[in-house]
Structure formats: C-alpha cells, structure tokens
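Deliverable D2.4 — example input (structure tokens):
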C-alpha cells in the first residue's frame, strides 16, 4: 500500500500539489518514515525520496526549482528530531537523519539552512551514532554539488566554520576520518561555488589537518 501510494503521488502533475488533499495524503505517507517496523519505514522513506526526486513534472521544461512538498517535508524532519530530542528516543532521530541524508540536496535553500542548524544542534548531544548520521547527511549534501537554489556559497562557508567546533579528538579515529571527509567535500564544493571564499577558509583546514 505504501509503495502504491508513493507511485500514485509521484505521477501527479504539478497543479495537483496545490490541492490540500494531495499534501494531506503525502503527509500520511511521510508519517510512516519513522514507523517502528523497519520494512514499513524503509518503504516509506524510499517512497518519499522517489516523490521529491523523481516526480514526472520535475523533468519538464517548466520544472520548478524544487518539489512543492519539499519545505513541509523538511519541517516534518526538524519537528521529529526536536520531539525526540536525540536522547532517549535517539532511534527516531537516527531514522529522520537517514531520510535527511537522502533529501538535503533537493530541498530549497531556506529549509536547508534550518535542517543544517538542527544537524549541528543534535551533534552537541555527544551521541556517537547520531553524530555519525549527521556527518553522513552533511557529506551527502556537499557530495551532491547542489545548485544555488539549495546551497549558497555563504551557507556552505557558514557550515564549514561551524564544523570546526566539532573536530573530534585525534584519538577517535573513525569520527576524525569522517570529519576530514566531510571537510574535504565542503571545501571542494565551496571552491566550485566561490573560489575566493574557499581560499580564505583553507589555512584553517590545513592547520587543523597538520
């Protein structure tokens, strides 16, 4: 049923998304992305990703910059993370972070900023798995090399500055390798967007790496 619903929503034309009922049905599907049963959750997450990335109208000449349901999807993710707090209910946070990892590159700039702030906030909880998932989400965002409608040079630079505060101890090998991989992608993407701005950030990265 979840799979059929996702396929049906993916095939709707752009005008159908202006109807409240379409979003209502979509949010019904979205609620299953944090379901306790892994198979249901995985299918729902796959469905949501296929809708936001693969809806037919996203590939036409008059395609919008992002899917109309993208902002409310990001809002749902942020609310779920804040509700679970990333502590006792860390499993919910991990499920949402997994979804965000796949969706960040197709979200509009304003909500990407909000999502990144949320990612940085949960990383302060010092929950090893949550931090690792948040880093994967950042890595996915920079690796996708999204357009300016998703990630501006300014936001890219702000994330780099913020991530310096989360540099792991050199004794924590896996987190450190993950941090370096994210910083590499972040700087190379910033160079693509605005070379001079990246140039200004490199000395700090080199110092940290050395």
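Example output (designed residues):
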């Amino acid at each position: 049923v979840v799979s059929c619903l996702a396929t049906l929503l993916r095939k709707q034309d752009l005008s159908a998304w202006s109807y409240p009922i379409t979003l209502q049905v979509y949010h019904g599907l979205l609620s299953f992305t944090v379901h306790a049963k892994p198979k249901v959750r995985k299918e729902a997450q796959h469905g949501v990703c296929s809708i936001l990335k693969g809806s037919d109208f996203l590939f036409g000449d008059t395609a919008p910059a992002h899917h109309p349901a993208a902002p409310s999807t990001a809002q749902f993710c942020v609310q779920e993370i804040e509700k679970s707090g990333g502590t006792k209910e860390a499993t919910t946070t991990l499920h949402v972070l997994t979804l965000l990892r796949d969706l960040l590159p197709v979200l509009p700039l304003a909500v990407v900023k909000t999502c990144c702030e949320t990612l940085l906030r949960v990383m302060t909880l010092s929950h090893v798995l949550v931090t690792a998932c948040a880093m994967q989400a950042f890595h996915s965002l920079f690796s996708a090399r999204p357009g300016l409608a998703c990630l501006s040079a300014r936001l890219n630079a702000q994330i780099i500055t913020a991530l310096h505060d989360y540099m792991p101890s050199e004794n924590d090998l896996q987190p450190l390798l993950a941090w370096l991989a994210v910083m590499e992608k972040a700087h190379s993407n910033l160079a693509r967007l605005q070379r001079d701005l990246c140039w200004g950030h490199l000395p700090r990265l080199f110092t940290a790496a050395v």
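The chain has a mean pLDDT of 94.
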